Amino acid sequence: MTTSNFSKEATDFALRVESKIILIDGDALVQYMIDHNVGVTPFVSYEVKKIDMDYFTEE
Fold it and tell me: What's the pTM value of the predicted model, to 2 decimals?
C-alpha cells in the first residue's frame, strides 16, 4: 500500500510472483476510505428527487 503510485518494477513483480499481491495506490486508498467511511466526515449532502408518476395517475 502506498499513498503515491507504484513503480513499474513493483507492478511487474506483483504480476510475476505466484502469491497474489494486490497493490493499493493512493487513488485506490482514498476511494476505499470514502466507500467505508474511514478517516472521512460527510461535509455536504444533496437530496435528489424524482417525480412519482403514480401520484399523478388518474383512476
Answer: 0.62
